[in-house]
Amino acid sequence: FRRRLVPEGVPGLMSVSQVDTAVGPAAGERLPCSPFVLGEWVSPGTGASSFVVENPADGSPVASVAAAGQSDVERALCSADEAAAVWAGTGGWDRAQVLRAVAAVLRGWAIDAGRVLSREQGKPLAQAVWEIEASADQFDWYADEARRIYGRVVPAKDAGHRIQVVREPVGVVAAFSSWNFPALLAARKLAPALAAGCPVVICPPPEAPLSTMLLAEACRRAGLPAGVLAVLPGDPAELSEPVLRSPVVRKVTLTGSVPVGRILLGVAAAGIKSTSMELGGHAPVLVFDDVDVRAVAAMCVAGKFRNAGQVCASPSRFFVQRGALEEFTDEFVRQTERLRLGDGLDSASDVGPLINERRVAATEELIADAVGKGATVLTGGGIDPGLGRTFFKPTVLGAATSEMKVMTDEPFAPVAPIIPFDTVDDALREANAVPFGLASYVFTNRMDRATAAAEGLQAGMVGVNTLALATAEAPFGGVKESGFGREGGAEGIEDYLVSKYINTVPA
Ligand code: NAD
């Protein structure tokens, strides 16, 4: 079944209609953009505040969203607490069925949900549709994992003792995620948590909350019991306070920046809550001189400027072996100049706008710092004023050095600095010289170089001759300040389970 999801313009203040989900050509229904509590979209009470979601391409309003108020937060926590035992007691096979149905609903919506995502976040439609499908993959993958939560029987030292280890859901989860992949990042939390038997209270990113709401609506239609999921739109800094202080919440999971990770970890520590942190990255790419330089440059350009560089695992520091430097740089610039910058909904666009003008200013600052320290802008370098204030031209920096901020601070921007290296050891020293350790990449045809680099890179993930790392069946996550915990793979559900040891001595 295919459903059409057509975002409307902004309704009047406090009105909540913004995503029109017409089922078939005749029947129409509306998905309110408001808090989702106890299995229902809450009508905002008198005096409730709302905020406008803007299309980053032109600032035009996409939707007006009712923010969660104090009573919504209290009801969400209370209903999650009550639902915890019910959902944990629902068998893995039954939970799997619900998750499988969520995936099916999302796949049926892929194109139109992708359109909503593109409008609220800016990315090209093809990337947005991929993201909805990748979100469905998460639910499919964890539908299977829900049926594979195994325990152990341990041979006991003392005769007559029977030791079992069983795996139980950790309890109510508070989830926070970023706007750069507004559907996928939320799905990476919801799917494993729900599979493990945990209720979730999620605060969507205010820049792009609609995708999380679509996931919640998919869960509702798939038959997820009321209370197991709550969505609280609004200012996460305000909402996180009562949510994280609540004794109901036993687990906190964030996808976001290192500074916000520090804040949430502090509050979680006070409540002795379990945490998972998917934080920033600054991925090194090691390109050795034995590769097909043109092919690797083309791959790197596509990866670097995907989602306008606003990707935690984005290849963002290009270390190129000196023998390949000139050819790689020329080809990288040539391929970059072929990219078409434009509105995400224009099928001709390869690269969309940045999420807002603050990201533009931050990117300009990084480039100014690099140029001030001797870098050369080989292409790009600023916005395309003909398109609008958020359209930043894909930028390549030559003569980069490790003193530049673009090499030390997470850029989260369409900027690619290129820097030469001579030996594997030199490259590894430079690559590991930042506090981040999320993704890393190496391109070589030689096994010895691939092995040395893969083993020597301080990162949670290494792509050898590929930039494709985000996939439902593999554990995504970082080391060092990039955080801890894993999303995806068999590991992902572990973050939502605790071990209970039972020693039984027959009476
Ligand atoms: P951010 O840390 O400012 O915000 C992330 C989310 O945290 C917000 O959407 C919100 O839900 C919550 N939040 C923000 N401020 C808060 C506060 N004061 N208290 C409580 N919650 C708060 O990050 P951002 O700018 O939205 O996203 C970019 C960052 O996210 C980058 O550093 C990027 O690398 C990281 N990221 C990491 C991954 C990963 O898997 N490791 C994936 C995507 C993005």
List keywords for this structure.
disordered N terminus, alpha/beta, about 500 residues, succinate-semialdehyde dehydrogenase (NAD+) activity, Ald_DH/histidinol_DH, seven-stranded mixed beta sheet, single chain
**Structure ligands:** nicotinamide-adenine-dinucleotide
Instruction: Give the C-alpha Rg.
Output: 24 Å
* Widest sheet, order of strands: 17-18-19-16-15-21-22
How widely separated are the two ends?
57 Å
Class by SSE composition: alpha/beta
Largest sheet: 7 strands, mixed
Overall pLDDT score:
93
Which range does the strand content fall in? 15-25%
Helix content: 25-40%
Task: Please report the number of helical segments.
Answer: 14
Specify the oligomeric state: single chain
Give the total of beta strands. Answer: 25
Q: What characteristic shape results from the CA principal axes?
A: globular
Low-confidence parts: 1-29
Domain Aldehyde dehydrogenase: 42-501
GO molecular function, one term: succinate-semialdehyde dehydrogenase (NAD+) activity
InterPro entries: Ald_DH/histidinol_DH, Ald_DH_C, Ald_DH_N, Aldehyde_DH_dom, Aldehyde_DH_Superfamily
Protein name: NAD-dependent succinate-semialdehyde dehydrogenase
